[in-house]
Amino acid sequence: MKQRYILCLLLAGAFIYYGAPRMSIFAEGLQGIFAISWLVLATFVVAGNLAALLYTPKGTSKGKKLKSKPVRKVRSRSFG
User: Fold this and answer.
1) Using one digit for the tens of pLDDT, what is the confidence trace for 8-67?
2) Radius of gyration for the alpha carbons in the chain, expressed in angstroms and rounded
3) Is the pTM of this model over 0.85?
4) Whether the Cβ atoms of residue 23 and residue 35 lie closer than 8 Å to each other
5) What whole-number distance in Å separates Cα of residue 43 and Cα of residue 40?
6) N or C: the chain end with fewer CB closer than 10 Å?
């Protein structure tokens, strides 16, 4: 999973590196709105992948199952 996060970060960085200089956020109309929204969404992509990469629990994988303590059955008795 971490390789996917790193790959997405690299691709998003490449898109920002090549796309940001070609966009004008000070343009009027639809061009400016598109540039601002594209940069905001690209920032969300980078932030989300970076957060997922940093806060992934270590040592857990799909193949391993966590061992839990056996649950004791407690019977309730009522005296009428």
Assistant:
1) 999 999 999 999 999 998 999 999 999 999 999 999 999 999 999 999 887 755 555 656
2) 24
3) no
4) yes
5) 5
6) C
